[in-house]
Predict the 3D structure of the following.
Amino acid sequence: MLNLVLKEIAGANEPISLTVLSNKLAIEQSALEGMLAHWVRKGKLRDDDAEESSACGTGGTGGCGCACTGTDACAFVAKMPKTYSLSSGIKKDNAENTQSR
Amino acid sequence: MQEIFGDDVDTVIADRRYGWINGLVREIVQRPAANRQTVSDKIDKIVTHRLFGIPIFLMAMWVVFKMTADVSAPYLDWVDGVINGPITHWIAALLGLLDLTGTWVESLFVDGVLAGVGGVLVFVPVLMFLYLALAILEDSGYMARAAFVMDRLMHTLGLHGKSFLPMLVGFGCTVPAFYATRTLENEKDRILTGLLVPFMSCGARLPVYVLFAAVFFPQNSGAVVFWLYLLGIGTAILLGIALKNTLFKGKEQSTFVMELPPYRLPTLRSIWFHMWERTSGFVKKAWTIIMATSIILWFLMAIPVRGEGSFADTDIDHSVFAAANQIIAPVFQPLGFGNWQASSALLTGFVAKEVVVSAMSQVYAVEQAGQAEAPPTFFEDIGGIITSFVSATGDTIKSLPLIVGVNLFEDEVEEAPTELMSAIKEGFETSSGGHGALAALAFMVFVLIYTPCMSAVAAERQELGMKWTWVSIVGQLLLAWLMAFAVFQGGKLLGLG
């Protein structure tokens, strides 16, 4: 099931919404979020929000001139949706794994 | 287990758990067909539709720019009236009490600080309306859909699907947009997106468009602003495709999953918070960077060259500032705005884009009409502020139908343009040989495309490195010149304007 999620993301030809993925795999959206979190922990997916925040550091003073782009840091930053993307090389690896099984 | 299942133990256990739970839920939970689709899902079917998604996004943008350009106009006139009326009277009276009337200090405050900072503060209502519209789009959940729809388009065009997210941030401010490119893992994608981000017109450029659209295209100012924003997006996409197929030719695009939040009815508190935070950021900038720049510009305008006049008592055309800008002005001659006033505004725009308007207000300094009349009393001023505010509120409500093309002001006599507007119009008509509207359009295109402010350049250097920052600066200047040239010369050839 978990591999199916990864395969579906890797095989998609365009960005997909969580709702579409949930409908396609007939998996509850809340369960799907947990599955994505699993793959983030395993390093196969990237949680882009977390990547961005981790680049902030702790000594920043905030504001639009700082590297932190969260809504708290700069008033001009629009709230953007959370995204998960495949880590480098996963698409190729996943396709190979799928073929070998 | 690892050997049998070909996966690590954690994944195998988690997989079995999810499988078991999913099976259990399917067997036990029964949902009526009607409940399987939420309202958000139903709206998303239309809003993120492959065919309708982009037109809906364009329509949303149209409403945003009609709101910012047309609906905000009565409040813009009100703030303009307050700054050039009561506030100017009060500063003049205060300087009179200090016995500074007629001195260079008075000129510094009135022609420097008030013209510079006031010239920018006039546009606070425009930005408030922009931020109001953006806050509604964000809080309702539509902005996420806009990003999704546009990212899908970017992906189809061969660009990185996630490129549009930083670009959308760029509508507010270019600085955080550069930092938002960090969501792209691949360096090539990150640099490419970083190069495209400045073409998204930031909020600071909006006052320039609104001012010029009001001077040269008063009947279609909202449409002009809308097409300029669209031109920015179009330029970024086309340039992106060109670069992707040449300098940034590389690996295939990776896909991603986007979590679209459910639609919500925005709360007044949240909208006010966003609007206030962003507007106060703009006002703070006016009191710091723009005020400092205005004072420096005033000093440069007060120093005479070739001994014509004395300090703070010289014709502005004979000042150090004019002389310095006359050197670069010929570069802009083929674009229709080869006068020192326009080139100085563009040059100072490197500090912050709002400064373009503030510099215009200073270089086109004009004598206020009716100065010979006795100024109104303090209470008359207060009364005037209140009554004009009520009238502006009424006009704003009346101008709401303009969004859908219904003009309730048709029967009213059009207000006379301000002295600044007349001076800008005259300046552009003269420099372009009678093609003022075309020159103004070329000027707006140049402002849209050319190098962003120094804070954005600093962020760009931090994210892309020195080499790509220089490529970006030079490239944007060249592209801005070429596009403005095409607008002005092409328009002349076609007999427009």
User: Anything to note?
Assistant: Residues 53-493 of chain B form one domain. Residues 431 and 453 of chain B are 26 Å apart (CA to CA). The beta strands of chain B are 256-259.
